[in-house]
């Protein structure tokens, strides 16, 4: 939500000219593309929540298929563009940078949520590590297409996001066993420290 407001403001700040940055147009398009569907979904959910809980439609599978289709079509649009001008070595460097950035974000959020004066539980830490570093194509690609509409190198700009999204899925899958074992052991340790000590009989 902050990105919807901050992105046009940053463009306005760095480009320094209101004529070259259609702030109103960008903001209204982002609002209609991202916020309005979310609001409509929340309103509709209130009225069909009971029906959904009874029928239990396969929204998880539908969501995964839609996300896969978005990734596939975006990859096709990106690498089918003859003006992308991206050699293999540069692509490898970008992949390395993206993985490094993702790991750094996850490590920093882990340190932040597990510091000594932190009130976060182990489960909170897991949520923070995975959710705060998440970047989604379903939001990122529409934002890029709206903000950089008509820009000939749009495909090149979308490459880091195209790599970041699969990278977070891959890293998440690899880290789940380690994070899970850490969370379970940490929760057990906290339970032991919180248990009242039995009185000593003299």
Automatic annotation (TrEMBL):
The signal peptide, as residue positions, is 1-20
One GO CC term of this entry?
A: plasma membrane
Transmembrane parts of this sequence: 30-48, 60-80, 92-113, 125-148, 154-176
Question: Does Cell cycle appear among the keywords?
Answer: no
Tell me which UniProt keywords the record has, alphabetically: Membrane, Signal, Transmembrane, Transmembrane helix
Specify whether Membrane is a keyword of the entry. yes
Q: Which Gene3D superfamilies match?
A: 1.20.1530.20
Q: Which Pfam families match?
A: SBF_like
Query: Which family does the UniProt entry place this protein in?
Result: Belongs to the bile acid:sodium symporter (BASS) (TC 2.A.28) family.
Q: Which PANTHER family match?
A: SODIUM_BILE ACID COTRANSPORTER 7, SOLUTE CARRIER FAMILY 10 MEMBER 7
Question: What's the protein name?
Answer: NTCP7 protein
Q: What are the leading ranks of the lineage?
A: Eukaryota, Metazoa, Chordata, Craniata, Vertebrata
Give me the gene this protein comes from. Slc10a7
């Amino acid at each position: 939500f902050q990105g919807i407001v901050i992105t046009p403001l940053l463009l306005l700040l760095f480009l320094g000219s209101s004529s070259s940055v259609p702030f109103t147009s960008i903001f209204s398009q982002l609002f209609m593309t991202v916020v309005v569907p979310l609001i409509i979904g929340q309103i509709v959910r209130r009225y069909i929540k009971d029906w959904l809980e009874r029928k239990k439609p396969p929204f998880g599978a539908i969501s995964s298929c839609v996300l896969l289709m978005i990734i596939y079509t975006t990859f096709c649009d990106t690498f089918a563009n003859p003006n992308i001008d991206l050699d293999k070595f540069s692509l490898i460097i970008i992949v390395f940078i993206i993985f490094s950035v993702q790991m750094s974000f996850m490590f920093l959020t882990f340190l932040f949520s597990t510091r000594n004066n932190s009130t976060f539980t182990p489960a909170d830490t897991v949520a923070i590590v995975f959710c705060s570093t998440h970047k989604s194509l379903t939001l990122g690609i529409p934002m890029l297409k709206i903000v950089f509409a008509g820009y000939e190198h749009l495909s090149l700009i979308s490459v880091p996001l195209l790599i970041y999204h699969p990278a977070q899925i891959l890293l998440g899958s690899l880290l789940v066993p380690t994070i899970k074992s850490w969370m379970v052991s940490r929760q057990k340790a906290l339970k032991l420290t919180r248990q009242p000590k039995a009185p000593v009989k003299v």
